[in-house]
Amino acid sequence: MFRRLAIAPVAALTLALAACAPSSEAVDLPDATAFENQILEQVNVLRFDQNVDRLDVSECLADHARERAVGLLGAVEAPTEDLPADCGDYDYAGENVSRSDQTATEVVDTWAAEATQAPNLVDEQFEIAGVGCVPVAAADNTRVAEDGEGVAGMACSIIFQGYSE
């Protein structure tokens, strides 16, 4: 397992996790797969604007990110577990997380505005990324929303990997 490298400290991530109350009003967001795609697209737009290569999609990392997103439900603090190391021979990793009722563009804008989270988005050493999101149930923010149920927001993780040199 990787140790967290180039990742925002827990204090900064806790703010993003506090956005959904235990019970919230439903919001209108796309399904989780579309939300994941929008997040990666927006991150790659930022990278393009900074003249940094696009991130390739890693389904392996996306699977891990979805598992980590489920762990954000009901969490008070961001996860502190090691990042996965079974998605290639990379030796450098990072993660950004969010649990909020924002759109995908707003989530990425929030990360980009945070001095501790923005570096992951445009780090030239990262080559691949996987995004995983789960819909947060409006009736109970500690669980994934079921089909047809009101959604209070999305819990998301994006895991980046690359080489340290």
Structural features, described:
It is globular, with a radius of gyration of 15 Å. It has 165 residues and is of the alpha+beta class. The longest helix is centred in the first third of the chain and has 18 residues, at 32-49. Helix content is 32%, strand content 21%. A 4-stranded mixed β-sheet has the order 1-3-4-2.
- Helix segment count? 5
Number of strands: 4
Rg from Cα: 15 Å
Low-confidence stretches at least 5 residues in length (pLDDT < 50)?
A: 1-22
Average of the residue pLDDT scores: 85
Overall morphology = globular
* Span between termini: 19 Å
Give helix and strand order, one letter per element, not per position.
Answer: HHEHEHHEE
Tell me roughly what share of residues is in helical segments.
25-40%
Largest sheet: 4 strands, mixed
Strand content is 15-25%
Strand order in the sheet with the most strands: 1-3-4-2
Which structural class do the helices and strands define? Answer: alpha+beta
Q: In short, what is this structure?
A:
With 165 residues, the chain is an alpha+beta fold.
Quick tags:
21% strand; disordered N terminus; 32% helix; 165 residues; globular; 4 strands
Task: Compile the SSE list and pairings.
Elements: H1 10-17, H2 32-49, E1 56-57, H3 59-70, E2 92-100, H4 104-113, H5 118-122, E3 126-137, E4 151-162
Parallel strand pairs: 1-3
Antiparallel strand pairs: 2-4, 3-4
Helix pairs in contact: 2-4
